[in-house]
Amino acid sequence: MKIVFFVFVILLGLYGCKSNKWEINIESVQINQEFKRFDKDIHEVNIDNIWDRVPVFEEKYGSFFDIYNTHIIRIGGTNQMDYVDKLAYFLSDPDIINAYDDVQTIFGSLAFEPELSDAFKRYKFYFPNKKIPNIYTHISGFNQSLVLDSNYISISLDKYLGSNSKYYQMLRTPLYKRVNMHPKKISSDVMFAWCESEFILDKTQENLLAHIIYYGKMHIFLDAMLPNIPDSIKWGFSNNQLKWCNKNEKQMWVYLVENKLLFTSTYKDINKYINEGPFTSAFSKESPSRTGRWLGYQITKSYLKNNSNLTLSEFMNNTNYQEILNQSKYKP
Questions:
Q1: How many of the other CB atoms lie within 10 Å of CB of 202?
Q2: How many whole angstroms separate alpha carbon 255 and alpha carbon 257?
Q3: Roughly what angle, to the nearest 10 degrees, separates helices 321-328 and 208-225?
Q4: Residue 156's beta-bridge partner residues?
Q5: pLDDT digits (tens, 9 = 90+) for 239-293
Q6: Torsion angle of alpha carbons 218, 178, 295, 8, nearest 10°?
Q7: How far is 158 from 171, CA to CA, in rounded Å?
Q8: pTM (two decimals)
Q9: Boundaries of every domain in the chain
Q10: Residue 147 bridge partners (DSSP)
Q11: DSSP line for 236-250
Q12: Average pLDDT of every residue of the chain
């Protein structure tokens, strides 16, 4: 279980004549995947009959129901004497009720379902032996955005109400986080989180270069799974931030090389270029955060261009980050 707070048989070269090399025909791809509205099931229960519904939830949602109780809304398991009282208190909280109402207004139907289903069909196409998770939706009380297990992903819909949501302002959620808390971000967040759980960073190479290449690969994966989603959505960057990255690509790379930062294993240095924030502090305030990931993406794109015979599976399973850099012949 993992909680988040946030058959490739055709040669890549054959896609060269297409406008989008990752656009494939998935009409014949079949997957066994269910979308289940746990948010509706739990919030529409008659509080006086909670005990009667517990076995139903356990049967329908398996281990997720226990994780929801113990790790998401943190009221403890169903074996506690006061379980019903705690769940009733959570479900009757005015803020939770209002959040549920807003969720139903925005997500009355799951508009992202076809997009996400197609993404997992592409996943099945490129990785035929991998398991396809079911998709659940829940309300977390503004806690975790996504909950992952080997069998499912559950989406906290109250974390995607829109950047102007009154709840995020009340909670004083930083603006740089709020801008990506909207419905269109769900599919890319889900696929990124699933990729991160399936393809693990090689911890024996714990330096900035490893993180840069690793996250660059994650974004190649997003391109393959969601080929028609704009870069601004997949990256969570504004168009101006993307322009800034393109304009300053060479300067960023030279800065990392000249300051001998590529092989630093200091967490503070890695965090500065990899993790979320208002901007990259080593660069200007016009820069986005995660510029290291963006550079890694440019490197991995160059690597694939120079190794067009690789399948996506071979690429994603290659954890020799130095080799990827060397063979990329990257020259910004």
A1: 14
A2: 6
A3: 70
A4: 138
A5: 999 999 999 999 999 999 999 999 999 999 999 999 999 999 999 999 999 999 9
A6: 20
A7: 13
A8: 0.91
A9: 2-198, 203-328
A10: 3, 154
A11: T--HHHHHHHHHHHH
A12: 92
